[in-house]
């Protein structure tokens, strides 16, 4: 059987998948569909189809089917395939940080990056066709703090506004620093509600991040109602605050903290309007 014939058979099979609404497939599924072909023959055919930009591999043994409307980019937007990909990896996940903030209406300075929070072990960031997907490891993922959004290819799990805000503070180094975190939280404040500050949220977050978020809301963003609500919920949960620098990797000598959030203001916060 010639290589061209094999590739044609695989191409037709991929088109059938696409006609059924599928946007991805695995190497094992390709083997099952063509049991008479050797493993090497299937891989070579998939390689040919990849060169023609009909498919793209984003992980060993996992391929995306590139729809015509995304042919110029050569890859699908991460929002379309992440849910299926994480199911393939058998990992819990949620879209977080700047990516989640954009879904909640805070699209300020949205980068060409996609942020996924998932369980350990750590996954390496991937970059295909100029689109970078960052993976951040987190020990526990609480489904109660995640929202489900419909996409054209299925569903997507996104952190709630409150979890997004806490994560922006907790992982500020991953998004460009505390100024950017504060800028995005400033936009997120429109959808943040006092009832979102729950014990579940506190269980999933570091107390230091809660302190820093409260400090930003009250003293830098002018969100007194949200800050008061957060502090009330913190007291109900019997959380203890200890002095903590606003910016963890900067010196604290010569800087002082206020008494409510016990945050040492060792850096200036500038909100990008």
Task: Walk me through this protein's architecture.
The chain is an alpha+beta fold. The protein has two domains: 3-70, Orthogonal Bundle (Arc Repressor Mutant, subunit A); 78-264, Beta Polymerase, domain 2 (2-Layer Sandwich), CATH 3.30.460. Helices cover 41% and strands 17% of the residues. It is built from eleven helices and eleven strands. It has helices spanning 3-19, 27-33, 39-51, 78-89, 97-103, 161-170, 172-175, 178-188, 199-203, 207-220, 224-236, and strands at 24-26, 55-59, 62-65, 93-95, 113-118, 126-128, 131-137, 146-151, 154-159, 244-245, 263-264. The protein has a four-stranded mixed beta sheet with strand order 4-5-7-6. Strands 1-3-2 form a three-stranded antiparallel beta sheet. Strands 8-9 form a two-stranded antiparallel sheet. Strand 8 (146-151) and strand 9 (154-159) form a beta hairpin. Helix 1 (3-19) packs across helix 3 (39-51), helix 6 crosses helix 10 and helix 10 packs antiparallel against helix 11. The longest helix has 17 residues, at 3-19. It is elongated, with a radius of gyration of 23 Å. The protein starts with a helix and ends in a 9-residue tail after the last strand. Mean pLDDT is 91; it is low at 1-5.
How would you sum up the major sheet? 4 strands, mixed
CATH topology of the largest domain: Beta Polymerase, domain 2
Low-pLDDT windows of residues? 1-5
State Rg.
Answer: 23 Å
In which range does the helix fraction lie? 40-55%
Please state the structural category.
Answer: alpha+beta
Order of helices and strands: HEHHEEHEHEEEEEHHHHHHEE
Strands in their spatial order, largest beta sheet: 4-5-7-6
CATH-derived architecture of the largest domain: 2-Layer Sandwich
Q: What's the CATH class of the largest domain, please?
A: Alpha Beta
Average of the residue pLDDT scores:
91
Oligomer: single chain
Number of strands: 11
| Total separate domains | 2
- Rounded to the nearest angstrom, the distance between the terminal CA atoms is 63 Å
Range of strand content: 15-25%
Gross geometry: elongated
Number of H- or I-type helical stretches: 11
């Amino acid at each position: 059987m010639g290589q061209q014939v094999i590739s044609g058979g695989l191409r037709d099979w991929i088109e059938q998948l696409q006609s059924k609404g599928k946007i991805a497939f695995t190497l094992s599924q390709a083997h099952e569909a063509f049991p008479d072909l050797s493993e090497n023959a299937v891989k070579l055919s998939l390689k040919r189809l990849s060169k023609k930009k009909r498919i793209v591999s984003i992980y060993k043994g996992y391929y995306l089917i590139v729809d015509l409307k995304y042919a110029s980019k050569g890859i699908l937007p991460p929002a379309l395939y992440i849910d299926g990909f994480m199911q393939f990896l058998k990992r819990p996940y949620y879209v977080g940080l700047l990516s989640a903030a954009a879904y909640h209406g805070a699209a300020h300075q949205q980068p060409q990056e996609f942020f996924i929070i998932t369980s350990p072990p750590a996954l390496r960031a991937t970059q295909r066709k100029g689109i970078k997907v960052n993976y951040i490891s987190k020990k526990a993922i609480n489904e109660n703090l995640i929202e489900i959004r419909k996409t054209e290819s299925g569903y997507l799990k996104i952190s709630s506004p409150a979890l997004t805000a806490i994560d922006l503070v907790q992982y500020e180094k991953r998004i460009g620093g505390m100024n950017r975190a504060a800028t995005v939280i400033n936009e997120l404040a429109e959808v943040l509600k006092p009832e979102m500050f729950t014990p579940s949220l506190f269980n999933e977050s570091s107390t230091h991040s809660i302190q820093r978020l409260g400090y930003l809301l009250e003293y830098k963003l002018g969100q007194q109602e949200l800050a008061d609500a957060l502090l009330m919920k913190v007291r109900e949960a019997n959380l203890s605050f200890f002095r903590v620098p606003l910016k963890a990797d900067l010196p604290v000598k010569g800087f002082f903290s206020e008494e409510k959030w016990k945050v040492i203001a060792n850096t200036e916060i500038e909100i990008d309007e």
